[in-house]
C-alpha cells in the first residue's frame, strides 16, 4: 500500500512543478508582449500616419541593458567626440582624460548591470515623398513592461557614438568580409540591429 501512495505523491509533485513552470512562462511571455506593444507604440510616434505604419519587432527579450544605450555613457562620449575637434595644445591629454573617465564608467556598469526588456523595432510607412523608415531600441521596466525607461533612435549620429564608445571600452573595431559586409560572428542581436 505504501508504494502506490508514494507514486501518487511523486506524480502530484511533478504535476505541480509543470503547472508552476507554465505559470512562470506565461507570465514572462505576457510581460514581453506588453514591452513589445509599448515599443511598437513608441515607434509609431515617428510615423506621419501612425495608422498606416508597419512596425516589425526584430528582437525582444528580458536582457542586460548594454552600456552603449546608457545615457551617462553616451553623454561622456558626446564630450569626447567634441574634444576630438579641438585645436588645443593639450588636446591629447584632454582626450586621454575622457577615455579614462569612460573606462571607469564602463567598469562601474559591468559591476552593476541593469536588467530590463530590450526591444528592437523597425517602423516603415509609405508616404508621397517615399518610404519613411525608423529603427528604435526601446527599454522597458522589467517589473512594469508598459513603462518605457528610455529609447534610442538608430541612425548615423547614434552609430558614430556607438562605435566611439565601444572602441574606447573594448578596443572594438568593425570587421568586414571580402564582400565589404560587416562580420556578425560573435555579435548579439542588439549589436546586429545597430550595425546592419
Descriptive report:
- This protein is of the alpha+beta class and 196 residues long.
- It has helices at residues 2-44, 71-84, 91-111, 156-170, 189-195; strands at residues 54-64, 115-127, 130-140, 148-153.
- The protein is built from 5 helices and 4 strands.
Strand order of the largest sheet: 1-2-3-4
Rounded Rg? 23 Å
- Dominant shape: globular
Outline the biggest β-sheet.
Answer: 4 strands, antiparallel
Q: State the helix count.
A: 5
Mean pLDDT: 85
Structural class: alpha+beta
Overall helicity: 40-55%
| Annotation, overall tally of beta strands | 4
Order of helices and strands: HEHHEEEHH
Question: Which key terms come to mind for this protein?
Answer:
196 residues; alpha+beta; 5 helices
Detail the topology: elements first, then pairings:
Layout (H helix, E strand, L loop, with lengths): L1 H43 L9 E11 L6 H14 L6 H21 L3 E13 L2 E11 L7 E6 L2 H15 L18 H7 L1
Antiparallel strand pairs: 1-2, 2-3, 3-4
Short précis:
This protein is α+β, with helices and mostly antiparallel strands and about 200 residues long. Helices cover about 50% and strands about 20% of the residues. The protein has a four-stranded antiparallel beta sheet with strand order 1-2-3-4, sandwiched between helices.
